[in-house]
Specification:
Strand content: 15-25%
Helix content: 25-40%
Order of helices and strands: EHEEEHE
Distance between the termini: 34 Å
Number of strands: 5
Shape: globular
Strand order of the largest sheet: 2-1-3-4-5
Length: 108
């Protein structure tokens, strides 16, 4: 069995004019991860949690997968299936969506 992974999806909404994942469709992304959890029976491979602000708002919607500490940015609902298949099931991060490895982008 592959390593268990915890997926965090930023759902933060901010005042008008400020970038926020919640205003860019993160609710749909969260639902797609939940659907994959159910339809693919991944309860022994992943958990999905909605979060507040993860920090790098300019790259949103943001998704972080632990324990790998892979930060995905500009994620769309259409990307979820690829993240689930390649990263969660096969253990290979989706390189084209990675904005950082190990820490939030732009953090020290």
């Amino acid at each position: 069995m592959s390593e268990f992974r915890h997926v965090f999806v930023c759902m933060q909404r901010k005042p008008p004019g400020m970038p926020s994942c919640g205003d860019k469709g993160s609710d749909q992304i969260f639902m797609k991860f939940q659907e994959a959890l159910m339809t693919k029976g991944l309860f022994n491979k992943m958990a999905v949690t909605a979060t507040g602000c993860l920090g790098p708002c300019m790259f949103g919607p943001n998704v972080v997968v632990y324990p790998d500490a892979i930060w995905y940015g500009n994620v769309t609902p259409a990307d979820v299936e690829e993240i689930v298949q390649k990263h969660i099931i096969e253990g290979q991060p989706v390189e084209r969506l990675i904005i950082s490895k190990g820490k939030p982008p732009g953090m020290f």
